# Entry
Amino acid sequence: MHATIQKPIGEIVKHIQPGEKVFVVGCNNCAWKCYSGGEDETKMMAKRLAARGVEIAGYTVPGPQGMSLCKLSHTKKVLMEDHADEVKNADSFLILGCGQGVHTVIDATDGGMVHPGCDTVFGGETVSDSHIEEYCSLCGDCIIEFTGGLCPMTLCAKQLLNGPCGGAENGHCEVDPDRPCGWILIYERLKKLGRLDLLDAYQPAKKNSKWSRPRSLEVSPTEATFCFIGGKVTVSNQD
Amino acid sequence: MKLTTLFDKGTFVITGEVGPIKGAIHRDKSIEPSCAIEALQLNQYVHAVNVTDNQSAVMRLGSLAASVRLKTNGIEPVYQLTCRDRNRLALQSDLLTAYSLGIDNVLLLTGDHIQLGDHKEAKPVFDLDSVQLIDMAKGLKRGYDISGSRIENYLDMAFGAVVNPNSDPLELQLMKMKKKIDAGAQFFQTQAVYDVKIFENFIKKAEKFKCPIQVGIVILKTPQMGRFMNKNVSGIHVPDEWIDEIGSVAKEDRKKKAAEMAGKFIKKIKSMVQGVHIMPLGWTDVVPKILGHADIN
# Structure
């Protein structure tokens, strides 16, 4: 999921012009889980903006619960058909969702003016209703086969691929003592699994071209093509 | 001269360390930067002097410029190069530049994290880790860059690396040490050590690699410094005995005491290692006395 956190209300309001009619759009998937753009927060945002003198053209959270705002066809239907009159009346859209959601609204509204209502902070695991943790950096060149599924690109502050820096203190990271050392987590896990041998392999330098933005993925029921700057990779899911 | 030449001859290799200044070297060549002055004070007692690379992630004069200045003054520099601020292009280019400017020894490290320094909003690079950096440097020695393209005039430098004997779990640190050796590391300088038993335990496990090791010594100047390091510097532990001992003498006698303590410590350890790396943190005048107490000529 894409973890998001609302921007402070003062910052949001600052970018809205006097007299601008704003339509607020939330997301019923990731932002709902983050309490940053579910139905309650979207309705609340409309109220908070109105209380600050912002004219509200309408608000919606394309549903049902679990539906992502970034599914363009659905968002387009909800905005351009179900809320056609309010959307027509709107000067801009305030999106309570991730950056993908913001772009989805641009596409859905044929290039409407947008305001991001959230900062998109990371891709994470919803560990509990109140805790989201980052375990993947979306680098496009996964090496966690060698680390028991724990990503050193994400769990190590220096993104070291061949072992720890040596600065850990009592199992904690030297950069952020409130966090465990990612490499000690990897070590303890592999030790428990009896697979410390996996650590012996030299991990070569990362293929950063796979991490160069922008990237895209062409998908079909039988194969997918990952396109990045400088190359593409096609993989079948049938052979 | 490459330090590996000395190790090969069985010389007990002594290195010191200086940090480049926060600023540029004066255009007036008669004015030496303080790091060069410190290195000159060390010169007759050590084989080479490490020059740190934006140490603690604090922005300073480049380690290469300072290393070249040392070389010009007849001091053998160990040029430190970290992955924190450079991607693989810059690292390779800097290695070739260093060799072209006469540098014979380079210490290849990951580098302290940006968050520990004075430019906390900078983008940490870490395109490579220290093992990959050493592997890439070995490629330049063999005539290839990391992309596999041929280079002309291969570099011929000694590659040093670091290891932390205090690290827990030690097994993980030894795993990385072995990877560094396999990648091309030719000698090691350790993180500062203050505990003979910890070092003994480390060396027993590391000696099988048959790679020269210099024990790292940070001169303990005051009890406050010991407590500060314990609180703020990860990977180093100063035992209470050290803190109490340096605190047992009046301020004016601290240099004398510090030399005695570090010297005695090295004396206990020197038979286990192939050299010592002393980090004087400005107390360069103490280094000869330390070596005296350690019975090292």
Observations:
- Residues 143-200 of chain A form one domain.
- The beta strands of chain A are 2-6, 21-26, 55-60, 92-96, 114-116, 118-128, 131-134, 216-219, 223-228, 231-236.
- The interface with chain B takes residues 157-172, 174-177, 183-184, 187, 196, 199-200, 202-206, 208 of chain A (CB under 8 Å).
